[in-house]
Amino acid sequence: MDARQLLKALSEAAGVSGFEQELEPLLREAFEPLVDEVRTDVLGSFIARKDGSGPPPRPSVMLAAHLDEIGMMVTKIDEQGFLRLTRVGGMDKRILPGMEVMVHGRRPLAGIIGTKPPHLLEPGESAKALKIEDLFVDVGLDRERAQEAIAIGDLVTFHRPYIELANGLVSGKSLDDRCGVVAMYICLEWLKRLQVQADVYAVATAQEEIGGKGAIVSTYDIVPDVGIAIDVGHGDSPGVPEDHTSPLDKGPALAIGPNIHPKIHELLQKAAKDAGVPVSTEVVPGNSGTDAWNMQVSRSGVPTGLVSIPLRYMHTSVETLSFSDLERAGKLLAFFIATVDRSFVEGLTWS
Amino acid sequence: MVLRRLSEAAGISGQEQEVRAIIRAELEGSVHRLEGDTIGNLIAVKNPGAPGPRVMLAAHMDEVGLMISGYERSGMLKFRKVGGIDDRVLVSKGVRIGKDRIPGVIGAKAIHLQEPKERETPLRHDQLYIDIGAKSKEEAEKKVQLGEYAVFDTAYSEFGEGLVKGKALDDRIGCAVLISLLKEDFNLPVYGCFTVQEEVGLRGAAVSAYRVNPQLGLAVEGTVCADVPGVDAEAQVTALGRGPALTIADAGTLPNRAMLRELIRLARESNVPYQFRRTTVGATDAGRIHLAREGVPSAGIAVPCRYIHSPVSVASLEDFQNTVKLLTLFLRSVEGGFRP
Q1: CA gap B45, B182 in Å, rounded
Q2: Is the CB of residue A228 less than 8 Å from the CB of residue A63?
Q3: Closest alpha carbon within chain B to A108
Q4: Rounded to an integer, what distance in angstroms lies between the CA atom of residue B61 and that of residue B24?
Q5: CA A236, A239, A243: angle at the middle one, nearest 5?
Q6: From the candidates A107, A112, A150, A312, which should be mutated to test the interface with B, based on the most B CB atoms within 10 A?
Q7: Which of A93, A138, A161 has the CB atom closest to B228's CB atom?
Q8: 3-state class of A134 per DSSP?
Q9: I want to staple A160 with a disulfide (CB 3.0 to 4.6 A). Which of A94, A217, A248, A317 is the partner?
Q10: Contact B319/B241 with Cβ under 8 angstroms?
């Protein structure tokens, strides 16, 4: 499978936090040819292991990119068959009016988050944001038919075809953080061509958007010597201060701050140079809001790094990124992994 | 189905040529002649020499949308609205710009970077941008010209039970009704007017009504249908699946009472479901037709459409068919001698 096809397929598939299983066959198909073993753990994280060529005990590197997406859940089917919603994960309710969605009932059902036509708005009404309680999903069915097909608790995801924009930018839903999964895939393709001592675990983690849960248990299970999270960072976009963002198509951003082991950051910088990959620096003064945060305090501690893919309009249905940045991130990760050896890992413990 | 092609065509007020081309191709051979005019209307003339009054049927080809109005240094596009659109439906949607359908997205600041109170105030269209991926103003200027139009990027499909969804059903569904009628044979001079610029002030209807000089006028619309949560029953205007909506009065027209009564009589006699359009807001092409030349007896009939003027609207195929049926009965009645 081609990395672009994988990104499109992952973007258009559904996997709200806690319900990532629909994505597993796709991951299996993509990752199985590149690794020694694939499996899924209790919480739903997908783990692909590729053994290194060094003599045991080999160092191990865990890559983590989360699989889940933000979404919604059905709370009620009303008398007319319209659905009411609650949100799973952080979502700006202002993006929802006029949105097309998929309702994951007994069968997938197309839905629309309806709006009042402008003809009927009272003066000043459009100056107020609609509340989540005011919003509803129309699936075009009456109550009885809706109840046959849909149950309370069924998931609702954005329906948004993945598209290509100019200059290699791509846009779609759930690129946060399926793009990180694709970066891991590109990394594994590079690793076929490199001498690698370390064992590599590429983990597509579950339930990140509701508190980084998949990474907690998968890191505990794997006990890696080094943990690298690949997640999205805020891309340059209108109305957002420049010092909080990284430019698109200028390479991944390497995070720095208390969540990041300085020596890992340093080695990532060196790997970027060796790989000929441009990078920028992302300043993270505390919780990175990524799997790196939980990985770092797994068991007796895991030295962590964070590679961020600059992405515009995070948590909307039109998340936008540069595909080149993914290719760069994948290559950078591979070059990083190829330099991890026993002595580097031993040097991560402070004296 | 022609409605799919009509819905997916781009035709914002002032640039209706894609829609016109579809309709022209669809009606070639079914009508006596197809006439264009200088503003862009397409007039399908059927049986001009037949006895009886000249009947003008009007459906508008244009849709609401966005117009590119400027560039940011970053390469983002600024836009203005064409026709009535609630700003709140714009965020997090895809658009297609110009005849090459250049894809773009309307993004928003990530929720992570917002103050909680920001989330209570909707983003106004002048605070939003279309991102086509251009890296600079210069690149954006090369790709997209000022004044080009952006339509919502929405696929037409069947929806729920017996429904369809797509953009611009207001009034492509009316265009589809006219196409069906014009494929029938009536022993009447029938003028199917596919009008332009309805959404910016019923402009195409004004000149086509003058040109056709009809003796009876009917505007066929996709109209407001707010039979949804949060709207009181008496404010819903129409309900989906209850048949064509007849206008009693709107902001542009007091329909001819004899025509309205005849439509009701025919619907009752033949058991075609119908409903009234229960609001006086909004106007249709009838608003201009009835004022053409010395005046034209006119009426309005519409297929109810949920969520009009948003990226995606919904209509019932049964309502569509019943609208065609009722209008067929009406034309037969005129054939048989009905005069207002």
Answers
A1: 9
A2: yes
A3: B160
A4: 12
A5: 50
A6: A112
A7: A138
A8: helix
A9: A317
A10: yes
Q: What is the DSSP letter of B184?
A: S
pLDDT digits (tens, 9 = 90+) for B283-310: 999 999 999 999 999 999 999 999 999 9
> Which secondary-structure segment (H or E) carries B232?
none
Residues of A in contact with B314 (CB under 8 A): 112, 114, 138, 140
* C-alpha triplet A216, A219, A222: angle, nearest 5°: 150
- For B50-75, b/e burial (b = at least 16 CB within 10 A) is eebbbbbbbbbbbbbbbbbeebeebb
CA distances from A325 to A258, B137, B165, B191 (A): 25, 22, 36, 57
Count Cα atoms within 13 angstroms, Cβ side, for A140: 25
Minimal CA separation from B238 to chain A, in Å? 12
In chain B, whose CA is at the least distance from the CA of A114? B307
The reply to whether residue B306 touches residue A114, judged by beta carbons under 8 angstroms, is yes
SS (H, E, C) A189-248: HHHCCCCCCCEEEEEEECCCCCCCHHHHHHHHHHCCCEEEEEEEEEECCCCCCHHHCECC
Residues 6+ apart with CB under 8 A from B49: B189
pLDDT, one tens digit per residue, over A74-130 is 999 999 999 999 999 999 999 999 999 999 999 999 999 999 899 999 888 999 999
B122/A92 Cβ within 8 A: no
Collapsed DSSP state (helix, strand, coil) of residue A165: coil
B147 touches chain A (CB under 8 A): no
Whether residue A120 and residue B108 make contact (CB cut-off 8 A), yes or no, is no
pTM attached to this predicted model: 0.92
Query: How distant is the Cα of B132 from the closest Cα of chain A, in angstroms?
Result: 6
Tell me which residue has tokens 């009620």.
A76
Query: For A24-118, where are the E strands, in sequence order?
Result: 37-40, 46-50, 60-66, 71-77, 83-88, 100-104, 108-113
The residues, any chain, with a CB within 8 Å of residue A212's CB and separated by 6 or more, are: A205, A290, A291, A293, A294
For CA atoms A279, A242, A306, A170, give the dihedral sign. Answer: negative
Report d(CA A253, CA A278) in Å as an integer: 9
Cα gap B238→B226, rounded to integer Å = 7
Instruction: Categorize the per-residue pLDDT at A295 as very low, low, confident or very high, splitting at 50, 70 and 90.
Output: very high
* In chain B, alpha helices (H): 2-8, 17-27, 137-143, 169-182, 203-212, 257-269, 286-289, 317-335
CB contact under 8 A, A138 and B306: yes
This complex has an ipTM of 0.89
Q: Which two tokens stand for residue A175?
A: 């690129």
For residue A319, the one-letter residue type is E
Contact A100, B312 (CB under 8 A): yes
Catalytic residue chosen out of the listed positions B26, B63, B148, B198:
B198
Judging contacts by C-beta atoms under 8 Å, the chain A residues touching residue B161 are 140-142, 145
Q: Which DSSP letter does residue A286 get?
A: S
Closest CA to A312 of A171, A161, A179, A158: A171
How many other CB atoms are there within 10 angstroms of residue B211's CB atom? Answer: 16
pLDDT at A238 over 90: no
